[in-house]
């Protein structure tokens, strides 16, 4: 029996909100060792002072872009101009606090280890106070020498998210949609978890 129009993917809505989008996550989140680390992080969150959390993330844009879909008359080949050579990548890096975005930097190029150290030392550190907790994902550039020492030198701490856990970083959505940060009435979303895996399924080195 065919589905009714209200139940077709992309057509259903509640209060005018579309349900056509889906939320995907890394399959590695279900791996026992990763799942356990995510649970440990999730259970420690209530002990964190929200006013002290500083989430860091990058987002970028490139001129190496082309339309995925175009229109043409039936039977005619569609011709479209696409950039070739001299492509340019711009990276935006910022920090998200409960009060909004801070420590913004625009980099002419992709994020690298030396560039991230420069961002931490010259842009981020001046905004930090003793007791702040800087939360980073596992991008290799975030773990190069000099990052932790520069942050800890001002009395702040560094914490890395569990692997494959961008859903625990609220800046993931804010940095990609606006640089204004969440409105004051919006709480930070730290993600959700599936039921905790049995410890009997964990490897001995988890």
From TrEMBL:
Annotated spans, Disordered = 1-31, 172-206
**Where does the record place the Tc1-like transposase DDE domain?**
52-173
Which InterPro entries does the UniProt entry name for this protein? RNaseH_sf, Tc1-like_DDE_dom, Transpos_IS630-like
Q: Where is the composition biased (Basic and acidic residues)?
A: 8-18
Q: Where is the composition biased (Low complexity)?
A: 192-206
PANTHER family per the UniProt record, alphabetical: TRANSPOSASE (PTHR46564:SF1)
Name of the molecule in the record: Tc1-like transposase DDE domain-containing protein
């Amino acid at each position: 029996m065919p589905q009714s129009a209200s139940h077709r993917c992309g057509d259903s809505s509640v209060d005018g909100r579309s349900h056509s989008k889906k939320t995907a996550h890394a399959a590695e989140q279900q791996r026992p060792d990763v799942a356990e680390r995510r649970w440990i992080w999730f259970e420690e969150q209530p002990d964190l002072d929200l006013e002290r959390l500083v989430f860091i993330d990058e987002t970028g844009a490139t001129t190496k872009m082309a339309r995925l879909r175009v229109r043409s008359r039936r039977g005619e080949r569609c011709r479209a101009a696409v950039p070739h050579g001299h492509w340019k990548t711009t990276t935006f890096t910022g920090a998200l606090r409960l009060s909004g975005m801070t420590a913004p930097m625009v980099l002419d190029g992709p994020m690298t280890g030396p560039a991230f150290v420069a961002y931490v030392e010259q842009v981020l550190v001046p905004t930090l106070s003793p007791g702040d907790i800087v939360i980073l994902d596992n991008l290799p550039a975030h773990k190069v020498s000099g990052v932790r020492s520069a942050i800890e030198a001002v009395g702040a701490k560094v914490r890395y998210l569990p692997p494959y856990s961008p859903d625990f970083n609220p800046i993931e959505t804010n940095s990609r949609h606006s640089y204004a940060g969440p409105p004051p009435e919006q709480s930070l979303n730290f993600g959700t978890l599936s039921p905790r895996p049995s410890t009997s399924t964990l490897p001995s080195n988890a």
